[in-house]
Each structure stands twice: as structure tokens, then as C-alpha cells.
Design brief:
mainly alpha, three-stranded antiparallel β-sheet, about 30% helix, binds protoporphyrin IX containing FE, binds calcium ion, lactoperoxidase activity, oxidoreductase
């Protein structure tokens, strides 16, 4: 990835170098009338606009030599007027359709993923006009649809700014405190030059531009021949659905699956469309509604047809402009802070963060004797409540916490670890609630990052990818490459496809391995939205966690358990969802480019036919996988990214294929290089060297030990307990020494030394970074005689070069002291 790395980290890669693949003159199957276009030339030379690889693969690239001209100011103004009218009309239609809407818990198939915030809905309402304006402005231009984005990019700033003013961009300027030592709750002000980067409720960034059907907004819909793409559910049946027994990993544990989901819920939550009054769209009964994109079920569907079902609900993600609010293609909103910063524990905005705090001792709220997460008393989450009135849904930083018990368990463990650390810090330092909360939060964020980069990612990506992309934590010392120009945001293709590889690791059953739940193994669909499974203090958290590392996860391959492809959030048998189909449909909804394009972005050869294992064919697929794809798609250029990526043979040392390894690696590089608060970094907000050494001792195993009743555990919980990864005593695992955070209130003054008759001085012996990393608070000077202000002003301070924390006493300070003294004298 030599050539593209910069573009992929710092912006959007929109030019691509076409590799020289198999050189047949006329690809079989190209219809008469379709212009074959320019053949790819010599390798490394043919740089083309990425969207020109629209329809018939690289054989059909239409080269754009003359940059298309932007629409006139007048055309744009008319477009805006029409757009405003259209959005108003759509709003009225929406109102009149509200009889079809369903409340959260009764909406099949989505569970808590439909918990969209009001803020997201508001942002999208504003953006709707911009997207419609963009569409109108280019409608009449005689250019290929794939070039519409390019045309809009040519609009001069003057015109754009005027439009922006009229539509009120929701991503406005914000004020930052550059001296703050802690992350903000919403992720803003991390990058001080671009305070909105990584903030919650901002758009997903893109590695490469979108590939919408109309170039701007409509889901990808037709194949290279102009026919409809295969139905998402058809692909799920032919490629992703299998019997459940055969595809276990032979090393990684089911905990690896769960940790992946947990960090996924830290860095991303897509905002899905809602119906009226925050209820949900039922797109099967009103498919024509704005933001409806239901999944048709084939009449011969092996599962759903037995229930006479012909449609699965699917709502589009809310549309937004990009962060700059320019006229362009539809983007999607991330409601979470993009950074890997513990937001799944603390929340992604100040209001959520505050609602989870005790405001005492720096602790987070708990329930059930501090053993469990706090209860959601207003009951805003979607979870299934049993008759027992003591059982409620749980609350955590991420609203999807109640999705299934293994997730609740991990969420609980991190909440408890926070409180454990906050308690220790409060006890040994006597800190205020705020100080203890922020320091504990900073430590937890660092531990989550360390476990991710040190334990989880190497298992998924393999050592080579970790080294190539500089993702490996150093054994000691600071990471010195924080880069203010690296965009930290979550990329759309990563969220809508690549990081969903974890869905393939999910087992058919959860395991409760514990004293009280003597090894229960319920089917996953019975566990969705079930907080009640956790309330058993002696069993819940501990036994479901033990069940995670004592079982293998499923292999990352095209196959997903039927618990996910037939029974996702099922309430009535036969009416659950299909997560594989949803992933495919979501990719199209977001305008994610097809598999082959992503291969080229990752400098891998695209497939020109379905032959397995050869360059120019499906190079990284085995025969059975290639065959399943060939039976489903009419051209390799149509393969959806999720489907093509997840079915690749894993790279050596890792668990995902080369395309996903590339995309996941790049994303975690952006999250490392672009995060001023990255735990290993040496920026202004760094840990002290001794503190960093402590953080690097953190292991997931020890964190589980500290917060459950488990007392022996394998050292590496990401691998299943085996003879080579045996359970050892918790006490033999390294422990963080929180005493390294002690006495950090100030940085260590020397004693006062008399300098002359009137002045005593002290020096800050440990200027930043001292052992605590804190400034010395207070004045370096003390005055013993304050009779003559004139005299004071002339006092020569000793040479203080090289001691950055010493401030000269200000004139105001002197005046204040003087007036105080005189008042004292007067009486
Ligand atoms: C029992 C386990 C899991 C269930 C039931 C589940 C379910 C879901 C559902 C319903 C969605 C929303 C789909 C959509 O509407 O587009 C989703 C999104 C997603 N899942 Fe999972 N998932 C699970 C585990 C995982 C794991 C292990 C990973 C990664 C390692 C993962 C990564 C993602 C990502 C990246 C998204 C997109 C994020 C977003 O839309 O906000 N999931 N999952
Ligand atoms: Ca986050």
C-alpha cells in the first residue's frame, strides 16, 4: 500500500491505478451496444478516476479527459428551491403514513440498533435539503451518473457558501480548551486544528468515494449488464447460510468475537431512519416511503417461504452531507465518538456521560450491590422485560448494550473496572469526584486501546500486517507519530462491511459455564434482548464470560449461523431478521463500492472471472467459495463487499482475508495515528513513562479476574482454554500499580529559599513531564515584606532559564498583595 497510504489516511482516494489483468479483447457476456471503452494499459501507468470503473469493470472504463463543468449559480438556486419544496412534501407524506409505524420493541429484526437519537434526526432533516439540491442541480446535465459527484465538486466556494447559509450546516464551529488533559465526552477537540474530527454525530469518512446508483443517493441496484443485482436474501441463502456444525476455529475463543463487538460499539453506531414520533418504519407495508428499502424474500426461500413471508423490513440509514456541508453524495452518521476511547462505557455525549455517573468518588452508576450495570428505569432501551418488576434493561455508554448477554457481560466488566480504579485513586489521593472520574476514564480508555492493539488485533490481522502498518505497541516507551493530518474518523466501508466480519465468528449457542448455570448452552436467538439472563449475580456475568473463552469461535468465512441469518431478534417464529442480508443491503444503502474496486484500493488484483485461486480470477477464494459466488452473481464485478471479503481465505497468521485485513488495518492505523489521546502517544496529554509502563501490563484476562468471581483463567482469553493456553491463577497475572498515579496533584516544589530581604523563591523540580506529568500549581515566589510596591517591581528574579513552569509574579498579583497588606495594617 505504498502509493495510496497517504490518500487513504488523510482524505478520500479518488484516483486509482489499474492493474494489467488478463488481456482478453472482449469480455464474454458484454452486451452489444455497451461500449467496451479503454483497455487497461501498462501496469502502474493507468491512473483513472475511481468512479469511472462504474458499470462494466475495468474493461469498460470511460475516461474523462475534459473536466465536466459545474452547474451555474442560477441552476443551483433553482435546484435548492425545488429541493426545499420536495422535502416539505415528503414530510407531509411521512406524517400521513404514520399508521404503519411500530414501536421499538415490536419492530422485528432490529432490536436496539433502531435506537436513533433526536440529534441525528435533526441533522438529517437539514441535510435532506442539501442532498436533494445536489440531485436536482445535476439532473439535467448530460454526463454519466458516475461523474455527478465530480461535477458538484467543481462548484465555486462563493456559491456554495450562500447555499450553506440558507440550509444551516449542522456541523458548525466549536470552541476548544486546548489545555484540557482529558478527552471531551463527545470526542470533539481531539484534533485542535479540526475539532469536529471524530466527534459523535458526524458523518462517517470514506476511504474512496461512494458508488450510488444515481451517483448521489440511490442504493446500488443494477449489475454490470444493467439488470437488477441479485437480491440480498438470495445471496445470503446461496453464499452465507449453512448448517452450523462444521466451521469452528481451532484457536481463537468466542471471547474474540465478543471483544470485537464491544470495540465496534465503541467506535460506531449508524443512525437508522425512524418513522413518526420516534417509532419505526414498517417498510414492508409502505415500501415507497422515503428511507424505505425493504428486502424482498424469494418465493422459494428455504426458510421464510414456509411462513409465507415475502418481505423483510429494512430502513435506510439517515442521510447527511459530509462534514464540510458541500453539495455532494449522501453520507451516513456515526452517533458514537469515532475514537476508540471507551465511549461504549461512558457515552458519546455529555448528557449520557452525566446520566451514567454517581458524582461521588469518580464512580459510575451501578445496580444490585455494585455488581451490575445501572437499570434503565425510564425504559428507553429495547429489551425484553420479564414479569419480575426488579428486572430492567441495562444502561451503558452504548445503547445497544442489551442486545445479548455476552455483550452485557463485557460492558459490565468494564464499568466495574472503572469503579475499581476510581475507588483506588480516590483512596490513595483524596481526589475530587471529577478528578477521580476523569483519571479513571483516561486509564480505562488506555486499557481498552492496549488490549485492542496488543491482544485482539494481532490475532485478527496477523503479525505482518501489524508491523507493516505500524500498529504494534512498543514494548516500552512512547509512540511518537501522532499526525494532525490523519483523519481519525471511522470509514464507511469499514463500518458497513469490513468490520462486520465478526458476524461470521458468532456461534450458534451461548455457553454459560458456571457453578449455578451448570453449563447451559441456549440457542442464540433465545438470548437476544435478554438482560434477565445476567441478573443472577453468582452466575450471570461470570458464567457467560467463562463460556466465551472456554469455547472456540466460528471461523471467519462466508458461513454465518442460522441464528443470525434466520432468527435475528425474532419475536414470532419465522419473522426474525437475516443479518447477512442486512449487511449486503446496508452496503448498497451506503453506496459502498463492490468487492473488486476495494481489491484495487488495497493493491490486490481484481477478479475478472470466477476461477478460484488464480490472479485475474478469485485469487483469494477457494473452489467452494468461488462456486457459491459464481452461482449467485453474473459478474465478479458485482460482488458485494461484505460477501466477497468475508469469503476470502484468511491471510497467514490472521483470521480475515487480504481485502478485509487491508481495510481493518487502515482503519486502526487512522485510529492510532490520528488520536491525540492515543495511550502510547507522547503529545501534551501523555501518561508519564512509569504510568505507561503500568498501562502496558494490562491484559484482558486480568481485567476479567478483577471484576468477576473467576479466579483462574487462561493468560490469553482471545484463545480458547487448551493445554497450550491453560487456566492459571488470576494472581499470577500482572497487576497495574495504581500508586504510579499517586501524588499527582502538583508536580513537586522545592522548599522556599531566601533570595534577599523581601523574596523567597522555590523551583518546580519536576517540570512536565515529571513523574506525575502535572504542572506545579501556585507561585514560585513568596514576598516577606510588601511595604514598597516600587521596590517589588524592581526585584530581580533569579535566572530561571530552563524551568518552564515558573511564572514571574504579575503586577496585578503584587497590587493585590499590597492592598491586602494595607487593609491589614489599617485594622
Ligand atoms: C451476537 C452477535 C452480534 C449481533 C446479534 C449483531 C447484530 C448486528 C446488527 C443487527 C447490526 C445492524 C445491522 C444494520 O442494520 O446494518 C450490526 C451492525 C454491526 N455489527 Fe454486529 N452483531 C454481532 C456481533 C458483531 C461482531 C462480533 C462484530 C465485529 C467484530 C460486529 C460488527 C458490526 C459492525 C461493524 C456493524 C455496523 C455498525 C453500525 O451499523 O452501527 N458485530 N450488528
Ligand atoms: Ca468511541
Amino acid at each position: 500500500l505504498q502509493i495510496n497510504l497517504n490518500a487513504l489516511m488523510k482524505g478520500t482516494l479518488d484516483q486509482i491505478i489499474i492493474p494489467n489483468i488478463k488481456g482478453q479483447q472482449e469480455r464474454p457476456g458484454i452486451r452489444p451496444g455497451v461500449r467496451p471503452g479503454i483497455r487497461p494499459g501498462r501496469p502502474g501507468i493507468n491512473r483513472v478516476d475511481i468512479n469511472s470503473i462504474g458499470k462494466i469493470g475495468i474493461a469498460g472504463i470511460h475516461r474523462i479527459d475534459v473536466a465536466p463543468k459545474a452547474p451555474s449559480r442560477k441552476a443551483i438556486e433553482t435546484a435548492l428551491k425545488t429541493a426545499t419544496a420536495k422535502v416539505r412534501k415528503d414530510d407531509r407524506t411521512e406524517q400521513s403514513m404514520r399508521k404503519f409505524d411500530t414501536p421499538d420493541i415490536r419492530t422485528e429484526g432490529f432490536g436496539p440498533h433502531l435506537l436513533t437519537s433526536l440529534e441525528a434526526i435533526e441533522i438529517s432533516e437539514n441535510a435532506q435539503v442539501m442532498i436533494e439540491t445536489a440531485k436536482n442541480a445535476v439532473k439535467k446535465l448530460r454526463i454519466d451518473k458516475s461523474q455527478r459527484r465530480k461535477v458538484l465538486e467543481q462548484i465555486p466556494d462563493g456559491i456554495l457558501n450562500k447555499i450553506k447559509k440558507q440550509t444551516s450546516c449542522p456541523f458548525g464551529a466549536i470552541q476548544c480548551d486546548p489545555t484540557s488533559e482529558y478527552r471531551t465526552a463527545d470526542g470533539s477537540c481531539n484534533n485542535l486544528a479540526n475539532p469536529l474530527w471524530g466527534k459523535s454525530h458526524t458523518p462517517f469518512e470514506r476511504f474512496i468515494p461512494s458508488f450510488y446508483e444515481d451517483g448521489l443517493d440511490d442504493p446500488r441496484a443494477t449489475d454490470v449488464f444493467g439488470d437488477p443485482l441479485p437480491l440480498a436474501r438470495d445471496i445470503s441463502v446461496k453464499v452465507h447460510t449453512v448448517s452450523d456444525s462444521t466451521t469452528q476455529m481451532n484457536d481463537l475463543s468466542h471471547f474474540s468475537m465478543e471483544f470485537g463487538q464491544f470495540i465496534s460499539h465503541d467506535i460506531q453506531m449508524n443512525a437508522l431512519s425512524k418513522g413518526q414520533y420516534l417509532s419505526n418504519l414498517n417498510c414492508c407495508s409502505s415500501p415507497q416511503r422515503r428511507n424505505c428499502f425493504p428486502i424482498p424474500l424469494p418465493t422459494n426461500d428455504p426458510f421464510y417461504s414456509t411462513f409465507n413471508r415475502t418481505c423483510m423490513n429494512f430502513v435506510r440509514a439517515l442521510g447527511t452531507t459530509n462534514l464540510e456541508c458541500t453539495l455532494g453524495p449522501r453520507q451516513q452518521l456515526n452517533m458514537n465518538t469515532h475514537y476508540l476511547d471507551g465511549s461504549a462505557v461512558y457515552g458519546s455525549n455529555k448528557a449520557t456521560a452525566d446520566s451514567l455517573r454517581q458524582f461521588s468518588g469518580g464512580r459510575l452508576k451501578t445496580s444490585t450491590n455494585n455488581q451490575l450495570l445501572p437499570k434503565d428505569i425510564p425504559n428507553k432501551s429495547s429489551c425484553i422485560l420479564p414479569a419480575n418488576p426488579n428486572i430492567k434493561c441495562f444502561q451503558a455508554g452504548d445503547p445497544r448494550v442489551n442486545q445479548q448477554p455476552a455483550l452485557i457481560a463485557l460492558q459490565t466488566i468494564w464499568m466495574k473496572e472503572h469503579n475499581r480504579i476510581a475507588n483506588t485513586l480516590t483512596q490513595s489521593n483524596g481526589w475530587t469526584d471529577e478528578k477521580a472520574y476523569q483519571e479513571a476514564r483516561k486509564i480505562i480508555g488506555a486499557m481498552i486501546q492496549h488490549v485492542t492493539y496488543n491482544e485482539y488485533l494481532p490475532h485478527i490481522l496477523g503479525d505482518q500486517q501489524m508491523i507493516d502498518l505500524d500498529l504494534k505497541p512498543k514494548s516500552s516507551g512512547y509512540f511518537t507519530h501522532y499526525d494532525t493530518t490523519t483523519k481519525p474518523q471511522i470509514r464507511n466501508g469499514f463500518s458497513a462491511a469490513a468490520f462486520r466480519f465478526g458476524h461470521s465468528m458468532v456461534r450458534q449457542r451461548l455457553a454459560y459455564n458456571g457453578p449455578l448455570h451448570s453449563n447451559q448452552n441456549p440457542l442464540l436467538h433465545n438470548e437476544f434482548l435478554r438482560p434477565d439472563k445476567i441478573y443472577d449475580v453468582n452466575g450471570g456475568i461470570s458464567s457467560v464470560t467463562r463460556g466465551l473463552y472456554e469455547e472456540f469461535s466460528q471461523k471467519v468465512d462466508r458461513k454465518m449461523t442460522k441464528e443470525l441469518t434466520e432468527r435475528l431478534f425474532e419475536r414470532t417464529h419465522g419473522f426474525g431478521g437475516d443479518l447477512a442480508a442486512v449487511n449486503i443491503q446496508r452496503g448498497r444503502d451506503h453506496g459502498i463500492a463492490s468487492y473488486n474496486i476495494w481489491r484495487m484500493v488495497c493493491e490486490l488484483t481484481p477478479a475478472d472471472d470466477f476461477t478460484a485461486g488464480v490472479s485475474g480470477g478469485l485469487e483469494h477464494h477457494s473452489t467452494a467459495e468461488a462456486l457459491a459466488l459464481a452461482n449467485t452473481y453474473s459478474s465478479p464485478w458485482d460482488i458485494d463487499l461484505f460477501t466477497g471479503g468475508v469469503s476470502e481465505t484468511p491471510i497467514s497468521g490472521g483470521k480475515v482475508g487480504p481485502t478485509f485485513a487491508c481495510m481493518i488495518g487502515l482503519q486502526f492505523r487512522a485510529l492510532k495515528f490520528g488520536d491525540r489521546f492515543f495511550y502510547e502517544g507522547n503529545t501534551d496529554v501523555k501518561f508519564t513513562p512509569t504510568q505507561l509502563t503500568e498501562i502496558k501490563k494490562a491484559t484482558m484476562a486480568r481485567i476479567i479476574c478483577e471484576n468477576t468471581n473467576i479466579n483462574s483463567i487462561p493468560k490469553d482469553v482471545f484463545r480458547k482454554t487448551t493445554s497450550s493456553n491453560p487456566e492459571i491463577s488470576c494472581s499470577s497475572l500482572p497487576e497495574l500499580n495504581l500508586q504510579k498515579w499517586k501524588n499527582c496533584v502538583d508536580g513537586g516544589w522545592s522548599g522556599f529559599v531566601k533570595k534577599n530581604r523581601c523574596v523567597k523563591m522555590r523551583v518546580c523540580n519536576n517540570p512536565k513531564p515529571n513523574s506525575c506529568g502535572k504542572k506545579c500549581v501556585g507561585s514560585p515566589v513568596e514576598f516577606t515584606c510588601l511595604n514598597n510596591i516600587k521596590k517589588l517591581k524592581n526585584i530581580k528574579l533569579p535566572n530561571i532559564n530552563g524551568l518552564p513552569n515558573i511564572e514571574r509574579p504579575s503586577i496585578t498579583l503584587l497590587r493585590n498583595i499590597k492592598s491586602l497588606q494595607s487593609r491589614r495594617r489599617k485594622g
